[in-house]
Amino acid sequence: MHNKPQLFHPQAEAALANPELRANFRGAMDYLRDKRKSAFADADEEKAIRDRAEAIRQRCLSKLPELLEQLEANCTANGIRVHWAENAEQANALFADIIRSHGGTLAVKGKSMVSEEIELNHQMEKEGIRCLESDMGEYIVQLGNETPSHIIMPAIHKNKRQVADLFAEHVPGFQHTLDVDTLIQTGRNVLREKFREAHIGVSGVNFAVAETGTLCLVENEGNGRMCTTVPEVHIAITGIEKVVEFLADVPPLFSALTRSATGQTITTYFNMISGPRKDDELDGPREVHLVLLDNGRSQAFVDEEMRKTLQCIRCGACMNHCPVYTRIGGHAYGTVYPGPIGKIISPHLMGLEATKDLPTASSLCGACGEVCPVRIPIPELLQRLRHEAKQDPRPGVPPLRGQKAAASRTEALIWRSFGLVTSRPALYRMLTWCATRLRGLMPKKLGPWTRCRTAPQPAARTLRELMAERNK
Known about the structure:
Helix content: 40-55%
Distance between the termini: 73 Å
Number of domains: 3
CATH class of the largest domain: Alpha Beta
CATH topology of the largest domain: Rossmann fold
InterPro entries: 4Fe4S_Fe-S-bd (IPR017896), 4Fe4S_Fe_S_CS (IPR017900), FTHF_cligase-like_sf (IPR024185), Helical_ferredxn (IPR009051), LUD_dom (IPR003741), LutB/LldF (IPR004452), LutB_C (IPR024569), NagB/RpiA_transferase-like (IPR037171)
GO molecular function: 4 iron, 4 sulfur cluster binding; metal ion binding
Shape: globular
Pfam families: Fer4_8 (PF13183), LUD_dom (PF02589), LutB_C (PF11870)
Protein name: Iron-sulfur cluster-binding protein
Keywords: 4Fe-4S, Electron transport, Iron, Iron-sulfur, Metal-binding, Repeat, Transport
């Protein structure tokens, strides 16, 4: 199942009509919101964590070009081979070349949304290379030929019965059960064998430290550590915005990420990778590669306001608190990054032609901005993108790909007419005078507007008559 952002409205309608999906998300979102609330029980502590995380991300982004060069130099000095990819096609070509050079046909993958962004699994399949997801949620959606519906919990849209049905269909010898521990163990048993077979391990990167050339990976299941230590070759991929300046920048961001994502003070595993296996070490890969992906991020970087989009640390808190996402789920958006963060980053990755409807898929309630651990002003950026989708770029600001994709001549004419009327008091008074006296001609049925409303009826008595009676 691969939805498209161009079909957001029918996809959202289909999601709203699915009671099982609605129930799955309702329970999951309530749970995650409660967990985050417990993790930030002290309001002063929450403010301090968010203040520091925001400051770190803004400082690092302000130095992004220099930090990327420093990261490359230090990674190279550590023995990590650094590759640059301008787009998804280049990134996939790099993966294919590296894997083919080692004669690999199987890669085990830790969780990586950037690999989803470039459709790595599907592209490698065309090259005769199988990419097996080792994160339990990713493994489940891969079995169902689906895409992740959440950036932290990919299979959050499924309940245990649906997972059991998938295992019964795809896992030989599985005895149908609704016991969650048994389901998890079933998946682990399958994946354990694949770790032994694969020569290639793939992972994402949560933070790339320029100061030390270190790749940091946050996880709870241990599969990320297996992917980065057991196979002979480790290929990490990350967006260029994930670089941080100092190793000391990582703990505050780590704290903000885990509390906001899953309500944990600390995750089960925190991996720091600074190079391939040394001669005196017993485990680890013989080669480590780092693919740095742009794919539209430079477009956001050069725009000072839209650059704030790149502060994201992929915690998913904005999704968990969004009244739209919690009702329609992630697949309705048709993008790799759904929910509020997806609505502001996808236009840079995919262009406004494909994503023009997403910035309007929001109530602008502000909940996403209130819970963001790095304080991305998502509602303000959504309003900016709504402008970009309909009008010419602002002076001095580079246009987005697909600028004015949602422009409408009819709408533009209506707004020009409205501006003309409201800027001329005499014309405004005349038209409102006419409107009040001709309201009796208004049709009794106005389509969707009157399904739960009735057209205004002429007042029995005018205000002047009522005031005259009162003064008698």
